[in-house]
Amino acid sequence: MTGTKRARHPQPLDVKPESWQQRVRSASSIGLFLDFDGTVSPIAETPLLAEIDPEIREIIGHMAAREDVHVSIVSGRSIDDVRTRAGVAGVIYAGNHGLEIESDTVCFREPQAESLRLELRALILQLELALSGTDGTLIEQKGLSASVHYRQVNEALREWVRHTVQQTVERSRSFSCRDGKMVVEVRPAIDWHKGHAVQWILDRVLPPGALPIYIGDDATDEDAFFLLADGITIRVGEAAESYAAYSAPDLDAVRNFLSKLGELRSNAEKGAQERT
After folding, report:
1. What distance lies between CA 70 and its chain's CA centroid?
2. E strand or H helix at 14, and its extent?
3. pTM to 2 decimal places
4. Residues annotated catalytic, as ranges
5. What is the Cα–Cα distance from 238 to 130, expressed in whole angstroms?
6. Cα separation, 250 vs 224, whole angstroms
């Protein structure tokens, strides 16, 4: 992230809600971008156990069916994995931190990341060897990136796992690391992240003038918060500082926000019809 903008303490959504509600009412259309784990799905002990909140899935499905709301799910998971777990039709899916994007009308793969698939497989073999004696580690292979999870590792060894992963990845020179919640993300060392993916969708898929709303809970979402300074950005969970404008304490608050968002758009549509 570059520029002069600084992280701040996000304002809780329920403090002066009219500040964002009026923007939602007056927007010609909405571009709703959602992280998956920790945002629409509770954090699970392992990635394989994660499931989308059923009520949120229903709300997203209703909004995705509207012509004035365009829903995207932007995740560190592979695109096939997040699509299967979300299970919502009519949604734009961005996997691997936006390195791959698909909808009913578009299919994008970041070219440099594609060229590094074989090198990533070799790096994963090195990581498996380096961590082979450590119980509780899980290396998630995602085609264009990888994640090393250590939530199940003995607490005394977690810092060693992080350090070992970072050292191994640094030797490759083609990849870089980024810390998440009990996970180290291994991605191609290229100038592409969730923020770029969101901007790509706004520029090439959504109608001009769509109001972007981005909700996420992790460090990897900060790139999107930073780039969407003119949108509505919401950091989920506890964060001392963030580039997001607003904060939501937990998944329940996300569910309430999404429900309110759908209500506001429906009321705005009814008002426009009545005026017509």
Report:
1. 15
2. none
3. 0.91
4. 35
5. 33
6. 19
